[in-house]
Amino acid sequence: MSPEKMVYMTNQIATYFKTQADPDRAGKIADHLSDFWEPRMLEKLYAHVDSGGAGMDPLVVEAAQRVRRAKAA
Amino acid sequence: MKDFILPPLNDRDMGTPTKQGAPITLTIDGFAVTVPEGTSVMRAAAEAGLQIPKLCASDNLEAFGSCRLCVVEIEGRRGTPASCTTPVVEGMVVRTQTQHIKKIRKGVMELYISDHPLDCLTCAANNDCELQDMAGMVGLRDVRYIAPANAPLANHFMRQNTSGEANPQWLPKDETNPYFTYDPAKCIVCSRCVRACEEVQGTFALTIEGRGFDSRVSFGAKTDTALASDCVSCGACVQACPTGTLQENSVIELGTPERAVVTTCAYCGVGCSFKAELNGDELVRMVPYKNGKANRGHSCVKGRFAYGYANHKDRILNPMIRDQITDPWREVSWTEAMEFTATRLRALQAKYGQKSIGVITSSRCTNEETYLVQKLARAVFGNNNTDTCARVCHSPTGYGLGQTFGTSAGTQDFDSVEHTDVVIVIGANPTDGHPVFASRLKKRMRKGAKLIVIDPRRIDLVKSAHIKAAHHLPLRPGTNVAVVTALSHVIVTEGLMDEAFIRDRCDWDEFQDYAAFVSDLRHSPEATALLTGVDANELRAAARLFATGGNGAIYYGLGVTEHSQGSTTVMAIANLAMLTGNIGRNGVGVNPLRGQNNVQGSCDMGSFPHELPGYRHVKFPEVRKIYEDAWGITIDPEPGLRIPNMLDAAVDGTFKGLYCQGEDILQSDPDTKHVAAGLAAMECVIVHDLFLNETANYAHVFLPGSSFLEKDGTFTNAERRINRVRKVMAPKNGYGDWEVTQLLANAMNGNWTYTHPSQIMDEIAATTPSFAGVNYDMLDAKGSVQWPCNDDNPDGTPLMHVDGFVRGKGRFIVTEYIATDEKTGPRFPLLLTTGRILSQYNVGAQTRRTDNVIWHDQDLLEIHPHDAEVRGVKDGDYIKLASRSGETTLRATITDRVSPGVVYTTFHHPDTQANVITTDFTDWATNCPEYKVTAVQVSPSNGPTEWQTDYNTQAEQSRRILPAAE
Ligand code: SF4
Ligand code: SF4
Ligand code: SF4
Ligand code: FES
């Protein structure tokens, strides 16, 4: 999966959750990623976030960090 | 292994349809019988076990009263009324066999027979003819009317008289339809065929022309042949015909069948029950089964006639392997094939990791087979890399309905349509995709139900014989969310919602948020009209009708799901149903029309990478434990790869091996070039199918599959109905598909020991709460059952959410329209949307190998006259269709069924490769591809594109098979 495609997919998810009246949107995005993304896709996501998260919605960046922490726990 | 006793086939013709009403008791030939008010005397007699002779009556048609063979005497009434048209009355005393009646009946039969050829012994209907039966039953012994020896002949069946003069009344056979023949010489003009075409199928292709002695059955205009007429070849007329006038060609060729086995159609999600009628193991014909609860005795051309692919010469019967996809195929034994495959897969896992291989389950195979394939991934491969083609069609249904109602299940049974008052059909084309459901819907519409069609194209339901939609909202592809949200806007702002239902059944706070959102003026039909192309007044009228017109039901298809906002549209639909209180009773509901026969089942069986059977997430330890205990392994708690992710991972080099059962991802998945690149990057692709499909061009192992006639199992249709599939002949390839998967599992040390699919169902029932009550004995006894079926619902669940939603309170979800990034522009100014046609099925692998090609031998591009003219495209021209992804060529057909700016095609033929055009945009939640919107340009062309030529060369190379080694 190219970084562009991954950024695109995650931003698409963020765009949806941004339309929802939820106090914790990053949490919702994190749940979604955690439920549906396979580990090697998540690894790519973490790597992209680590290298600055270019093009990525800030909510996704936050969500990615939360997924990473949760899965490491 | 266990033998199953087939349930007795009780499908006797009761003469007239069943009625509902207060009980009425009468006496027939001295027997007292009680039947519902409105029942005919004929049916009452049949209920009492007495058969009154009849010719023009049949219990799937309203009584007509034309043959007068069914006359009876009724005490206190004058004359001899026809029993089929006489309703029962309390205390009535009926006699069916008096001297007087018997004489009348003989007279009637004598007249019929005097104008009927007496070549019974050589007639295809011999022994399967009601005229014969009735002649026998009334004791007809001689026929006194003989036509005069010379012209004019007073009959319809002699071609010429004894002096060789032609009989002007004689008409030649019509053999234009590939599946049945019309022989006018044998017709008794009972009009059962005409009424079947009207009442059962709803096509109105047949009429009776002329009067009295001159009356004839005709396919529309005088010049029309069966093929040229409106006939859709459903076969209802053939089934209704009491004589050999309308007869299946297979019976003409093979003779009348001597045994019948009830089974289920393997084409679409309606899941029609059929009687497979055979001589020995030779299939003579498929006849829709009257007691089938999905189809109630009706069928379409695919299930009824298009089964010949099972014997097609292209079918592969031996396993084949090759080292590289550039090599020709080599036929090998099953043992060698399994060793080769197991060794390769294990080597890949050793080199690239446990998660480097996976499976794709099929929506065409049985539940039992699908269950085994996902079990192969989870228990033998040791990962969750399992997905199914439902990914590319109904995965947004799972997500959307799961979020709002708490389960992905469709809410109704098909019978529910008989109680509906207003229907919304959105993104579906039932007359082509789900024909038997369409017939049932049209029947209800003829009785007064109203229809709202939301579709970019003017589909047949918008207007055809004796039906017309109240509203058609021809939206621009990709704007579903905006249109459905606008419907809700009208309902909320005009105060038309069902507040009592919402307060009682839904989360009221969430509703408040939703109501505030949807009431915003930007969601009004006026504000969105520019975007959606839908007339605001029409949309308002449709919303009012749906909210106030009585029982409202929504039926939707892939035109809803296959969008980047597919999941959001499903939630918008669920909102609309809750808003109007249309959930939890007969005649209402949210009804996903599933494409393939077992899409529902393949999802139920745990095909998705994040869910174990019964839609339970792999992250839950208590769910994993059930399977870990049953299978003696550990289950990965992390979700596996979905199909698009598998292909991405393959291109990245981390996914290397794929077992693909009964699925042709290269043809059916979007962005063909990306799929091809993914497949080409894998080192072991195993295709398990009937034919060398397109995906097999990239395969290293080919395992021959078995057809639905060759194995036992179950399919689950769109109404969650579990229907039995029964083995009527031995698998031509040697093994049922479940056995092949077991061979592979065991070659990889799986130690599976199933000897019959019933044992697989027992395992499913033991591990999946919604299937707990299901087993083969029960299915044989009940015929079919809708899940959930367990201790709480021992007879299954026809209606969902009756007393409350599965999740508790129904949840309203805000559905903001977000435009797809697939946008038109100067280079690609048109929007392409895709669909299918009645006679073909999915990628066409089966139907293209039957006579159905007579109706559709190539994919055509529908284009509006205006768009065609500015591009200099004429009807039938070769055109080039190009998008950002690729280009292909096909022929154009010019029609105003599509709006200006929109073009449409089907994807049934591999030569067209319509998916070279589609892009890799997907639904935000589920990665379901956005098939239904692609920006394209159309231009004149002289022939195939370079891609098509290259593709065909590669395919040809790849399909070479070496002669078997000696
Ligand atoms: S096959 Fe079906 S559509 Fe055709 S004439 Fe007979 S009933 Fe009508
Ligand atoms: S074709 Fe058959 S069903 Fe139709 S009118 Fe003639 S005999 Fe009756
Ligand atoms: S294709 Fe569908 S509608 Fe046609 S016979 Fe089969 S299940 Fe029924
Ligand atoms: S069966 Fe009653 S009139 Fe023909």
TrEMBL record, chain A:
Recorded hits in Pfam families, A to Z, give:
FdsD
- Official protein name in the record: Formate dehydrogenase subunit delta
TrEMBL record, chain B:
The UniProt entry, under PROSITE patterns, shows:
2FE2S_FER_2 (PS51085), 4FE4S_FER_1 (PS00198), 4FE4S_FER_2 (PS51379), 4FE4S_HC3 (PS51839), 4FE4S_MOW_BIS_MGD (PS51669)
Q: Where is the 4Fe-4S Mo/W bis-MGD-type domain?
A: 258-314
Q: What InterPro entries does the entry give?
A: 2Fe-2S_ferredoxin-like_sf, 2Fe-2S_ferredoxin-type, 4Fe4S_Fe-S-bd, 4Fe4S_Fe_S_CS, Asp_de-COase-like_dom_sf, Formate_Dh-H_N, Formate_DH_asu, MoPterin_dinucl-bd_dom
Query: What are the recorded GO MF terms, alphabetically?
Result: 2 iron, 2 sulfur cluster binding; 4 iron, 4 sulfur cluster binding; formate dehydrogenase (NAD+) activity; metal ion binding; molybdopterin cofactor binding; NADH dehydrogenase activity
UniProt-listed CDD domains: fer2 (cd00207), MopB_CT_Fdh-Nap-like (cd00508), MopB_Formate-Dh-H (cd02753)
Question: What family name appears in the similarity comment?
Answer: In the C-terminal section; belongs to the prokaryotic molybdopterin-containing oxidoreductase family. Belongs to the complex I 75 kDa subunit family.
The entry's protein name is: Formate dehydrogenase alpha subunit
